[in-house]
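U., I forgot to send this yesterday:
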Amino acid sequence: MSQFIALLADRGDVLLYHRARTNHCPRCGRTNWLVGRVTAECASCQTALPLVSDRPEQPLTPDFPAQP
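Result:
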C-alpha cells in the first residue's frame, strides 16, 4: 500500500457536494445549497462542503478572461 493510500485511509470519511445528486446537509439535514466554484454552502446553517470536480484532469480556473 502506498503512503498516499494509507494517508487517505487514516483520514476517514470526507463529505463532498455532488452536483448531480440530492445532497443533505450533514449538520441540519436540509437540501438547499448555494453553489460556488469550489464549495457549496448550506442555505440554512452555512455549513460548507467542497465540490466534487466534474473534470478532475482540469485545474480550477476562472470563467472570465483576465484583464490586462
